[in-house]
Design goal:
The protein has about 280 residues and is mainly alpha-helical. The chain has helices at about 5-30, 35-60, 65-70, 70-75, 75-90, 95-120, 125-130, 155-170, 180-190, 200-225, 225-235, 250-255, 270-284. This is HEPN AbiU2-like domain-containing protein.
């Protein structure tokens, strides 16, 4: 049937052509340096997270009880899975779906760390019972304020606030909130549809990936403790310029905890200047 004889078919043909043009324009956008930079930032963050998890796993092989009795290491794979799914969602235009996965990762990390602290004397079965009980608020990260966060020093309160803020931001995409509705209306008015994300949107979600993964790395270091964290950082990750979490002020605070180490004394001022430069570069 000739589309001219059917108004609906004519409208569909026009809409199809319009969408094809938008898709071609978006492919050009995805090839732009700014878009590629944001996409690569997410990839770099995810690679850095998996590298760090691997280092932690290797470090605690000298502490078999850690893997046998603690919840946090048992659920690292859940966090890793959520981050990978989030990355795949972004690659396919599902930025808000990615944010929902990042919220889940935060909840798992904070609440398993909390159980390991509160039920430290319990075996694995006892910790699981504690988690399942009413003592644990499983659908938020409020328990972060009850963690000792020994390695953070004066940054402890800021870290607690940042963790809760990251969870709140991600929560705006779990349920249909006023903020989510307003944002959707604005994007539609600007002609942005699913799969047609802008460079600004990609840059925002890249920062959110880095924020959430940095929080998880801090919690992982807190979980394995100062001795093993020091082994990982001093003369290890602190010399790796490609490690993406140098830019995080909370990681810098953890790193500063180990400035007393003998291995750092000969170049301590140089190391401190480099640490400050890394965080300052991220702010800039």
């Amino acid at each position: 049937m000739d589309p001219a004889d059917n108004p609906l078919m004519g409208m569909l043909a026009e809409a199809s052509e319009a969408w094809k043009r938008r898709a071609e324009e978006h492919e050009e956008l995805r090839a732009s340096p700014e878009y590629i930079q944001a996409s690569m930032a997410i990839q770099r963050t995810v690679r850095g997270l998996f590298q760090t998890l691997r280092y932690c796993e290797l470090a605690v092989t000298r502490w078999p009880e850690y893997g046998e009795r603690f919840l946090f290491p048992r659920h690292q794979a859940d966090v890793a899975e959520a981050v990978v799914v989030a990355q795949l969602a972004v690659e396919n235009g599902g930025l808000n779906a990615a944010r929902r996965e990042l919220r889940y990762a935060l909840e798992v990390a904070v609440n398993t760390a909390y159980v390991d602290e509160q039920a430290a004397s319990e075996d694995l079965e006892g910790k699981v019972r504690f988690y399942r009980g009413s003592h644990v608020k499983k659908q938020n990260v409020d328990h972060v304020q009850h963690l000792p966060l020994r390695l953070l020093g004066s940054e402890r309160v800021s870290f607690v606030n940042a963790t809760r803020a990251a969870w709140v931001d991600a929560s705006n995409y779990v349920h249909l909130t006023k903020r989510g509705m307003d944002e959707k209306i604005r994007l539609r008015a600007e002609g942005v549809r699913l799969g047609l994300e802008t460079v600004e949107m990609m840059s925002d979600v890249a920062r959110e990936f880095h924020r959430v993964c940095s929080i998880f790395v801090v919690l992982a270091f807190e979980s394995i403790g100062p001795s093993f964290t020091g082994d990982i950082l001093v003369g290890g990750l602190d010399e790796n310029e490609e490690w993406p979490f140098h830019e995080c002020p909370f990681i810098a605070a953890v790193d500063a905890y180990f400035d007393y180490k003998h291995e750092r004394q000969d170049r301590l001022m140089e190391h401190r200047a480099r640490r400050t430069g890394r965080t300052r570069l991220a702010k800039g």
